[in-house]
Amino acid sequence: MALGGKSIYAEKFAKSFILKHMGPGILSMANARTNTSCSQFFICTAKTEWLDGKPVVFGKVKEGMNIVEVMEYFGSRNGKTSKKITTADCGQI
Questions:
Q1: Could you give the angle at the alpha carbon of 12 between the alpha carbons of 41 and 1, nearest 5°?
Q2: Which residue has the higher pLDDT, 40 or 11?
Q3: What is the 3-state secondary structure (H, E, C) of 31-72?
């Protein structure tokens, strides 16, 4: 999960559950609690249909999924990484 602060667009967003957690590469909002969608997100590495209707899907990895798979290697069940992972030069939607 990526940890962030305030979004550059708004403090809070209305939820829309049109897109589903269909498989690897799905980008989804991470919430600390109800109505706290901000700038935290995670990238799915498997089908996670049990998340449908909970966190909002907002995109999909278009290229570089091999890098996501390498990042997954540094993860753990408790969400901590064994090495620091930084997103840089990611652009803006």
A1: 10
A2: 40
A3: CCCCCCCCCCEEECCCCCHHHCCCCCEEEECCCCHHHHHHHH
Q: What is the pTM of this model?
A: 0.70
pLDDT in tens, 38-55: 667 889 999 999 999 888
The fourth-level CATH superfamily of domain 1-76 is: Cyclophilin-like (2.40.100.10)
Q: Give the whole-angstrom CA distance, residue 88 versus residue 86.
A: 6
Residue 46: which region, alpha, beta or left (left: phi > 0; alpha: psi -120 to 50)?
A: beta
Residue ranges of domains in the chain: 1-76
DSSP labels, 76-88: -TTS--SS-----
The half-sphere exposure of 13 on its side-chain side, counting CA atoms within 13 A, is 19
